5-formyltetrahydrofolate cyclo-ligase
Amino acid sequence: MTEKKLLRKEMRNEIARKINLDFTCDHLEACLKAWTSFKNKTVALYCADPQELDLLSLFPESQILLPRFKEVTKLYDFSLWSGKKEDLREGPFGILEPRKLEELDVIDFCFIPGIAFDRVGNRLGRGGGFYDRLLAKYAIGTKVGVCHDFQLLGKIPKEEHDYVMDFLLSPSGLIKCDRKQII
Ligand SMILES: Nc1nc2c(c(=O)[nH]1)N(C=O)[C@@H](CNc1ccc(C(=O)N[C@@H](CCC(=O)O)C(=O)O)cc1)CN2
Ligand SMILES: Nc1ncnc2c1ncn2[C@@H]1O[C@H](COP(=O)(O)OP(=O)(O)OP(=O)(O)O)[C@@H](O)[C@H]1O
């Protein structure tokens, strides 16, 4: 098994162990407000699974985009979402996604869920390679990895195609990724 696959398996077990714990994330909204204004910005989010941080309600003045699976390509696109529940449908993997495909070329902020991140900004995802391809497709301003504190690890193996995060958001706060740590 590759290093990445092994780590993914270990982290999945760890997440399953922690899933019933009560994570208080009250700090997230204040943290985002203190950081910057998202007013009239385009923000790519995700419909969170129970083990992920749910940020959907924190951007009332932004244009929200969500990943939407396309059968033909078997890949995800980012599609605009009205903010209304009835404009979502269940996609593959049980993840809610916009019914209609409406793309934008430029995305100001992209919040990206992960199984684990390191402080340099490397991400371990679910293993579909979907986000790396999504990030390659659009002009993305700022990439923010999102996870619980226990998912911030010392080091994550990086492959050629992996995108690096600019910031990491967890219940304890926002970290600017430090590329210098690579050496
Ligand atoms: N909320 C959310 N939406 C997201 C992602 C994510 O991580 N979180 N993605 C991030 O890339 C994309 C979906 N990526 C996925 C990649 C692999 C599997 C997958 O292999 N699922 C296994 C079960 C493993 C598991 O529990 O995670 C399966 O369905 O058999 C699912 C989704 C786009 N949307
Ligand atoms: N830009 C890309 N072009 C082609 N193949 C890619 C690309 N990005 C990733 N892949 C392939 O997808 C597979 C999974 O990649 P990886 O382990 O990086 O997934 P991940 O980022 O953890 O998953 P996800 O983004 O779905 O959460 C690998 O086989 C990888 O080669």
